[in-house]
Specification:
The protein has 482 residues and is an alpha+beta fold. Among the domains are: 183 residues, Ubiquitin-like (UB roll) (Roll), CATH 3.10.20.30; 104 residues, 2-Layer Sandwich (Enolase-like, domain 1), CATH 3.30.390. Helix content is 33%, strand content 22%. The strands form five sheets. It has a five-stranded mixed sheet. The chain has a five-stranded antiparallel sheet with strand order 10-11-16-12-13. Helix 10 packs antiparallel against helix 11 and helix 15 runs antiparallel to helix 16. The relative contact order is 0.09. InterPro entries: 2Fe-2S-bd, 2Fe-2S-bd_dom_sf, 2Fe-2S_ferredoxin-like_sf, 2Fe-2S_ferredoxin-type, 2Fe2S_fd_BS, Ald_Oxase/xanthine_DH-like, Beta-grasp_dom_sf, CO_DH_flav_C.
Length: 482
Amino acid sequence: MIQFLLNQELRSEHALDPNLTVLNYLREHLGKSGTKEGCASGDCGACTVVVGELHTDAQGAEQIRYRSLNSCLTFVSSLHGKQLISVEDLKHQGQLHSVQQAMVECHGSQCGFCTPGFVMSLFALQKNSDAPDSQKAHEALAGNLCRCTGYRPILAAAEQACCNKPADQFDSRQAETIARLKAIAPTQTAELNSGDKRCLVPLTVADLADLYDAYPQARLLAGGTDLALEVTQFHRTLPVMIYVGNIEEMKCIESFDDRLEIGAATALSDCYSALHHEYPDFGELLHRFASLQIRNQGTLGGNIGNASPIGDSPPLLIALGAQIVLCKGETRRTLALEDYFIDYRVTARQDSEFIEKIIVPKGHTLFRAYKVSKRLDDDISAVCAAFNLKLDNGVISQARVAFGGMAATPKRAKSCEAVLVGATWNAATVEKACAALAEDFTPLSDFRASKEYRLLSAQNLLRKYFIELQTPHIETRVTAYV
């Protein structure tokens, strides 16, 4: 059985289909049709809801952390121990919530289909903001698409909603909600079981290892932003899932003198601060990784584990020399990330083995990353490049160059690196290294880019890296090219 709060109503579910999304649960099981389905793939934001969960802040105080999510990509099992808020919950005692009122007064809605999603993104923004902030408003709304209104009045609504924001019913009930969430905090492995399908929800790494050993055919569910597409887009059935999002050990970030250790179930939005502090380019790329709703769900371990050749984090991690810790039963092994990827969607992971954490070395001061995509925000890379050199008196002593979108796996450019190591860091060396990229990669053409475009882009990004290191005041990193 799983338990969660539907606003303030306690829900206990045990026989639901684990393949059921929160979107369909709201609409088909509860009759709450305010949440809309636009794309069923996490691209439009019409289905946005907000999930609240207990969080201890830096001062040790217990709070509720509110996050916007795409309900079309969220399975009901991931709600265990949390609070779900949909657009119907905002109006209180006959009065519109202040974010709803702002949308009305700023004329932020026309047809209204996308409006509930915008309202919920604004609600999360208001809860996480102390004052109007244009950059945060753009970030909060980047995952919500509108076909008819235009974004100026919606951004005006965001400014109004976050300016002198009034207290609402969620503020007045905060202590009560915290107490109720503590009362339903998971204490043992939970299960959602419809007879022919089941989802198990362990609380510890040890429990996960035991369950995965017992059910090696199970699909591991973290954020679900990729896995859920098998249900919503390809209409497949997932008979057994194991949800790892309640394992606190796998959601921690630890900083040591020489490395970061990031739990595989850590949401991308939680990774931002630590990675941006060490590597600003990594932080900037995370901003462009996807919408905030996706980053609130998607995990660093999931982005690695799905072995996509166009995943944005693996090329950067490979260039940094990152490692992963793989766990199976009581056995752990540490593997260089570049050795994890074998072929298209084929990895070195053994049956019942899972990624427990990612180890990211510190101290690479010449690390840079670039993403080429058709849109600046919320778009998949045509090419993703990461460069990491070490220079000694103008001579390249170490080189790690990695790309995504150029091969069947995220991959180092070994021929390019061989040209660079031992050579003087100058334009002539860069041109030789650019030529060597043609030996490293024979990219494919698809609807995102032709093979010629990809190869030329990869070469130009290396030239860009050289120019920026020579003249850092003109750098324009993590740039999109149309």
